[in-house]
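A quick aside before the break. I want you to see a complete sequence-to-structure record at least once, exactly as it would be stored in a machine-readable document. Don't worry about memorizing anything.
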Amino acid sequence: MAHSQVEKRIAQKRHAKGILVPLLVDLFSRSVEIEEDDLPFLLDLLEKMVTRQGVRNSRPVFSPSQLSSCLRYVYLLKHHSELGVFKKPSMRPEANYYFFTGNWIHLKWQLALHKLDKRWPDEKFQLLGVEVPILSKRKDHGGTVDALVAIELEPVIVDFKGLNVRTFSEITRGYVPPEYALQIADYGMLFNSPSQRALKITKGLLVAENKGGPDPKRPIALHESEIPIKTYLPEIRGRLEVLRSHEQDGEIPEPECTSTQTLQFQGCPFSGFCRKEVKENQRRNAASEDTEGYRVAVPGRNGNRRSRRNSKRRAG
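That is the input. The structure line, written in tokens, reads:
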């Protein structure tokens, strides 16, 4: 039986679960155009994006977007220049394409939030900021939030991700990759710091866009996942404590890669610096597999506490 357009829209709204995505679905029930009075917002947003990249290059910090990665990688992102460690630029067109596309995905949805802010009264929805910089009291930990909004007067952090069909499907079934949850919770922790502002944030929203496009249940290809800030604070603080301890002792964390064949190693800009040690890890693991009755423990995400003195390992 054929359904009218009105009936289809009602069904789509019913399937659009969450607190932000339903508002965006409603926004796109009508034509969304770039208008003349949107230009100041877009120009300001572009300037903020340029400034963000400049700050990243001139004042490296422990970033929420990287905090769940190999701790050596996180450490070297902040300290590689002073240590003389060579950072290999990505020469893969695919990787550079993904980053380029990511910028436009963020720009698109930030504009949509701006449009939403113009349509709804403040009590329903308010865009409090886009590309919002946050920095810890120590000035060693911080990043930039895609958007800060208030929905029904409750402040919420919003982070947009463009994802492939497989990862998007996993998220719709309730699995949120730990790195995304930690990133958003870390933003919340920084926002709630007394050195930042009186604003109290208890949750963030991971808003994922399916790069495969819309489907009958998701007419604008979006799915939101709520991230409770408090849940992830112990792990965030633990990882920061390890990184800061290494800084204090002047030590570089051990590599967490166990093979030079993994995508993590091959895509790492510091793979050349770590190659010798990772090969040794690989050799030991291979030897252990040939030893009956024994298994070698593989470092987890937190790595281990053994490390090398910075002064002894500078790139030539």
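Two observations worth writing down. Residues 1-14, 294-299, 302-316 have pLDDT under 50 and may be disordered. The two ends are 72 Å apart (CA to CA). We'll return to this after the break.
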